[in-house]
UniProtKB/TrEMBL annotation:
<feature type="domain" description="ABC transporter">
    <location>
        <begin position="29"/>
        <end position="262"/>
    </location>
</feature>
<dbReference type="InterPro" id="IPR050153">
    <property type="entry name" value="Metal_Ion_Import_ABC"/>
</dbReference>
<protein>
    <submittedName>
        <fullName>ABC transporter ATP-binding protein</fullName>
    </submittedName>
</protein>
<dbReference type="Pfam" id="PF00005">
    <property type="entry name" value="ABC_tran"/>
</dbReference>
<dbReference type="InterPro" id="IPR027417">
    <property type="entry name" value="P-loop_NTPase"/>
</dbReference>
<dbReference type="InterPro" id="IPR003439">
    <property type="entry name" value="ABC_transporter-like_ATP-bd"/>
</dbReference>
<dbReference type="InterPro" id="IPR003593">
    <property type="entry name" value="AAA+_ATPase"/>
</dbReference>
<keyword id="KW-0547">Nucleotide-binding</keyword>
<dbReference type="GO" id="GO:0016887">
    <property type="term" value="F:ATP hydrolysis activity"/>
</dbReference>
<dbReference type="InterPro" id="IPR017871">
    <property type="entry name" value="ABC_transporter-like_CS"/>
</dbReference>
<comment type="similarity">
    <text>Belongs to the ABC transporter superfamily.</text>
</comment>
<keyword id="KW-0813">Transport</keyword>
<dbReference type="GO" id="GO:0005524">
    <property type="term" value="F:ATP binding"/>
</dbReference>
<keyword id="KW-0067">ATP-binding</keyword>
Length: 295
């Protein structure tokens, strides 16, 4: 598939989704012509995207398609190879304020003695500028954050002893400590059972509804968040497709993106993708007029 046939990567910035119907809203993150390559391997390119306050953007794609790398770019931990990018009106930089990050879940070592409240406190202190919080204020804020995710009962338990789902709640409390206007979540549902998946998605959804925090949610599985998603950004083979789930999660859209026939079927309200290649073949640009075609 060459670039002329590439699935219409948004050529112009997209309109705010319904959730951001306020015409005066400004995007919390904007990418124009953004690209990321490692060596001659293009993960994504020509990415034009505005993320709106209160929007729930799901980022999908096979292993190695560059989902985590996109979050790293938004966090200022990775420079895009091309294009322009702003987050909360500025070029992203490490430790930026009002950006919450829930990293990909790795079980915390069993011997970790940090308690749940210590992790949340780190989130609170790590992002503060100016005068430090008084101990009483910090403690109250930590308690509020733990309560907001239903983690009060294990606030003083070392996190290494918590279950995966409990640890995930604490991570979300930590991410909310920055009072984020954009919340970046990297596969927060991984290895959680259905009940914990529901809890985590409900927490994230509540935050965006009560505080208009934009959510960029990397996931392998759209079904647990299907009812919440405003738009999908699907990355594959160095290309991408952006739009509402009904436009992106279709046989024709994903077949074009993958360059091979892929079936997308809906069964009992769930979306099942059949035949998508698991991993991303390495893509070498040929250096054509649009920055490189496909092999
Ligand atoms: N610093 C780096 N240098 C070179 N290659 C890298 C670097 N960081 C990531 N990669 C490669 O870029 C590709 C995309 O990685 P990334 O973690 O963004 O993918 P992903 O879509 O999040 O994958 P997964 O679904 O498996 O988590 C991977 O093949 C990875 O090995």
């Amino acid at each position: 598939m060459d670039r002329a046939q590439a699935p219409s990567p948004a050529a112009a910035p997209l309109s705010p989704p319904a959730v951001a119907a306020d015409s005066t809203a400004t995007p919390v993150a904007s990418l124009r012509g953004a690209a990321l390559s490692y060596g001659d391997r293009v993960l994504w390119q020509d990415l034009d995207l505005d993320v709106w306050p209160g929007e729930f953007l799901a980022v999908l794609g096979p292993n190695g398609s560059g989902k985590t790398s996109l979050l790293r770019v938004l966090l200022g931990r990775q420079q895009p190879t091309a294009g322009a990018l702003t987050v909360l009106g500025h070029p992203p930089r490490r430790g930026g304020r009002h950006i919450g990050y829930v990293p990909q879940q790795k079980s915390l070592p069993a011997h970790t003695m940090l308690r749940a409240r210590d992790l949340v406190r780190l989130g609170l202190e790590g992002h503060r500028w100016g005068l430090p919080l008084t101990p009483g204020t910090a403690r109250r804020r930590v308690d509020e954050l733990l309560e907001s995710v239903g983690a009060t009962s294990y606030a003083d338990v070392p996190v290494g002893r918590l279950s995966g789902g409990e640890q995930q709640r604490v991570r979300i409390a930590q991410a909310l400590a920055t009072d984020p206007r954009i919340l970046l979540c990297d596969e927060p549902l991984l290895s959680l059972d259905l009940q914990h998946q529901r809890t985590v998605t409900a927490l994230v959804d509540r935050r965006r509804r009560t505080a208009s925090t934009a959510v960029v949610f990397v996931t392998h599985e759209i079904n647990p968040v299907l009812g919440l998603v405003d738009r999908v950004l699907y990355l594959a083979r160095g290309g991408h497709r952006i739009g509402p789930p009904d436009e992106v999660m279709t046989t024709s859209a994903l077949s074009r993106l993958y360059g091979t026939h892929v079936d997308v079927v809906r069964v009992h309200g769930r979306i099942v993708v059949v035949g998508a290649p698991d991993a991303v073949p390495v893509h070498h640009p040929t250096g054509g007029p649009n920055g490189g075609g496909r092999p």
